[in-house]
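Exercise: predict the fold of this chain.
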Amino acid sequence: QVQLVESGGGLVQAGGSLRLSCAASGIAFSISAFGWYRQAPGKQRDLVAYENSGGVTNYEDSVKGRFTISRHSAKRMVYLQMNSLKPEDTAVYFCYAKTGWRQIEFWGQGTQVTVSS
């Protein structure tokens, strides 16, 4: 059974930093792509950062230069380092994985990030 469990969310002032963590279990970690999405109240869930199984990353334009996605294969962890946070970054952040030849998708439960001005 695949599980993605996020942690690290919280309340931070504008300009601050947070690191989100996603613990992945039951998944072929090395051949999986991982990403972070976010969903603000009343809005759709949008991609923030993505890393494919080859380590190639891409980012939503508003977070480029501020957010960094990374993974630690031995720990089976995926991270999102968020710096220079802005109030508009406030959202629930979801860990996402896509794996296998059928490219099955999995989601975590989400972690709240609130940035105060």
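Check your answer against the key: DSSP finds no helices and eleven strands in the chain.
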